Amino acid sequence: MKQLMLGNAAVARGLYEAGCCVISSYPGTPSTEITEEAVKYPELYCEWAPNEKVAMEVAFGACLAGKRAFCAMKHVGLNVAADPLFTMSYTGVNAGLVIGVADDPGMHSSQNEQDSRHYARAAKVPMLEPSDSAEALEFAKLAYELSEQFDTPVLLKMCTRVAHSQSIVETSDRAEPEMKPYEKNIAKYVMMPGNAIRRHPFVEERTRKLQAWAETAPINRVEPGRNHEIGIITSSTSYQYVKEVCGDTYPILKLGMAWPLPQQKILDFAASVDSLVVVEELDPFIEEFCGTLGLKIDGEYNFPRLGELSQNIVADRLTHTFPMGRTINDPIPPRPPVMCAGCPHRGLFYILSKNKCTVLGDIGCYTLGAVAPLAAMDMTLCMGASISAVHGFNKARGAESEGKTVAVIGDSTFMHSGMTGLANIAYNQSNSTVIILDNSITGMTGHQQNPTTGYNIKGDPAGKIDLEGLCKAMGFTRVRVVDPYDLKACDTVLKEELAANEPSVIISRRPCALLKYVKHEAPLTVDPVKCVGCRSCMKIGCPAISIKEGKARVDATLCVGCGVCEQLCGVKAFS
Known about the structure:
Helix content is about 35%, strand content about 15%. It is α/β, with parallel strands linked by helices. The strands form five sheets. It has a seven-stranded mixed beta sheet with strand order 3-2-4-5-7-6-12. A five-stranded parallel beta sheet has the order 14-15-16-18-17, with helices on both faces. Strand 15, helix 18 (about 410-430) and strand 16 form a beta-alpha-beta unit. Helix 1 (about 5-15) runs parallel beside helix 7 (about 135-150), helix 11 packs across helix 14 and helix 16 packs parallel to helix 18.
């Protein structure tokens, strides 16, 4: 049956049709929907893991047991899971194991723009790279065949445009292979040095076999063109841009396998054209490989290494024509992202800003605390780094910083990779204050459950971690809980914990305002007679509040009645 399908949904369908049985992932845009779509198939066991490393290890355990398995993550999540990935390359698999990784060129929702193709080459595992939803489905199925044929984990690389665009796919029935028997094999699966040394030659030989497979694989295909002045090598979403701009004008070598690359096929293609051009996003991965083959890439058609490509950029570089499509002549007012109206983090960030704290932040929607007018964040690096960094910051600066420096981290991020940093503070004893922003959900990626919420991926009751009990068990005697809507209480607790001469944890607890079960108060209104236009209410950056004709106004369609603005108004104009 043919149907229109999101790229990530097509991957999930491919997993279903291929007979995958176990899926463990950590949500990360643009990969999240793969697992959210997969959980709709009752034949698939799906879960949210605390982090990507755990997810990959769960998937490996399932494939070791004899069932096809999958894990998904975004590109920076692959950094977290790199440890098991590199060693799984040595062990190989039992049943098929596929690892979905979604890159984010343009950094729509990411802190960097790394290119995951380097991981395939470094870990010496194959990587497939679909360019639309139909290929996403087919490549997911093919990945399991390759995994079991060549005894290897397989990376399936998506990107934002392929993951979040729709195209036609043709679905088929599920074909679940029989469970493979598990047989104890110490030499293959116990990677102590003596065994690992003997597995390394297998990895190198496997790469040679995969490269030979890539030479004749249908997913690496040459599409003829009328004009052989140039030949274009491309892949993924860049292929779509090239086809839209050039059609069948130039010959195209479309690569569906990002690694290993087909050496002879590239050489033969280069020999058939006058000049060679590579169109790819981010790093010159294919281009550099061509260089190792002694091929010269035509420098006239240079493509940017920053951000996404587009039809306009490809048209400008390849055909030197005016960019296609309409342009907007009038400047558009900037619309920077802001925390939602009623966001529980807003009040706490206001108090941190008011007290002129140095705030080492973390990854989540609360990173928007760095945006004006709050501007209450000094650093964001990676998941869990806030806690480790505040320890190092205070160790370096001592008493000078201890009374005014905090770490802030969300509940899901704390579960992901904050606990080890907190253990380090308890063990090595810096006088540091850590604030856990507990909004009862994984907010940034679309309200996924996590180990602190008490529910699993399907919304069924599950094990629930008690944050207060956990922090105390880790050695913290000072653990305080505050409601971030109560500015006075937040201010008091923050001052007390910063003044304390020992490590402490503050848990700022209030559910995300967008959760369906959260019941809101009536929206606030402003008495224009009382309002003096002092703009104190604007200091929190709430999108429900604006100034019109010198007076504050509240948009009743946005306001959730949290009352934070009311506490800032010295003339009691809010009610």
